Predict the 3D structure of the following.
Amino acid sequence: MDDKFKYLKFIVICSFILAFLCPAADIYATENISSGETATEASISNKVSDIKSSEKDNISALYQQYCNRFENIEYKWDISDNGFEIVENQIFPIELSGYGEVAVIPAFEEEYGRLALFFADESGKILYKTEQLETNHRNRGQMEQPNRGIAAISFQDVNGDERMDVVLITSCVNDSGAYAGKSYKVGDVLFQSENEVLFYRDYRISDKINRFGMNKSVEAITAFVRDGYSTEFMYTATTLDELQKNGLQIIEEQCYTRSFAKLGKLLVVPGIYRISDYDVFMIYLVNEQGYIVSGLQPMGDFDNLYALKGINCRDIDGDGLKDIVVLARYSYEGAEGQLMVESDYSIYYQRTGGFSADTEIKSKYQCTDEDTMEALVEKARAYWGWKTEK
């Protein structure tokens, strides 16, 4: 009996020691098994979390190093010494209140592609510098940014305080994602201040400039910031009446009603809104009650609608539902500032809940100025396996 008691006592003590040494592991296993997660899955999850934490710490360290180099720049000749490449052909003079004429020096950080602006006096001393620009926030949470160059820079009073402000447009190209390899513009405005900060940005203004496509030119940005013209309503309106009250001009000859299966009868409404010297083009599908069911943006990154060649509603992908094909000519500013005109098309496939823009055909076929709507539709249908007359 004593031997059994001693053995039982030994078992209890061993169990207590094990429980004391491994309580966390026991609880962890119990909790994760009850939640359906295996120990292996939990281990992988922890490793992923550790990697993400490590990456975050690494980015923070790199950004701190970058900031230190940026802060070390006190004179013009310090710019290159700290890893920034000056854009020599974009250095311009500007009148600063209380300082007279200073040089605005744009420079790109060589490793990460971030843009900075430096304001230097005649002696080369940096009076003000900033890298807090809209163009440096394209890749959120990353050091590297997609800046490829300065598309335009202008100095003018845009807020009516009789001080020269800076209107800036950069060219960007993403390395990955849906728009990889495609150039786009990012607009920004720096307002001259009367205090020691010298310049400030209003992120709300910069956000609207870029979110609603008013970043195509200095003139468009100025028309928005100084004169109050805005394309915002084109993206936020809910009714056709609201569009017209805000100045949308309907292209009447291409406006008609079509039946779109479960979406019912919809009025196809192509329209333009003029801001500065640019006609911004969109197409709206409006139901019989006057509400906007869908808004299409065939203009993409072009600056201006040059001519609308046609809108066609017919089945393209063979699913029995009417799709929408848009063919037009658009204009944009070339690399040397020259006016460029190009034909382009867009296809929108009807789906149960709306329309989806084509990416497959456009990646394989670019239209020319000689293409007609009929020829374009035939090529698009052939892509989806329709038999052609040929």
In short: Confidence is low (pLDDT under 50) at residues 1-36. The two ends are 102 Å apart (CA to CA).
